[in-house]
From TrEMBL:
Pfam families (UniProt xref): ThiS
Source organism: Phormidium yuhuli AB48
Protein name: MoaD/ThiS family protein
Length: 91
């Protein structure tokens, strides 16, 4: 499945300054692995030591938060758009 991934500015140093990347993946887990294959070093920024998405990053598939879908098992379909969004906190 060809999906488009929107990369936040702080991670674009791993993507050659690209804000969008097209990947072939059938789930979020496969997508993270595909990103690592084409952008070495990005997976360590996306996932913790157990391979789970870092708490301060949110993944959205077509504007739906994967935490309310199937988390990293969320299936991807051809043409889907995945957004990686850093969490914002403040006081």
């Amino acid at each position: 499945m060809s999906v488009t991934v929107l990369i936040p500015t702080p991670l674009q140093k791993f993507t050659g300054d690209r804000a969008k990347i097209d990947c072939e993946a059938g789930s979020i887990t496969e997508l993270i692995d595909a990103l690592e294959g084409s952008c070495p070093g990005i997976k360590a920024r996306l996932c913790d030591e157990q391979g789970k998405p870092r708490r301060f990053l949110n993944f959205y598939v077509n504007s739906e938060d994967i935490r309310f879908l199937q988390n990293t098992d969320t299936p991807l379909n051809d043409g889907d758009e995945v957004s990686i969004v850093p969490a914002v906190a403040g006081g």
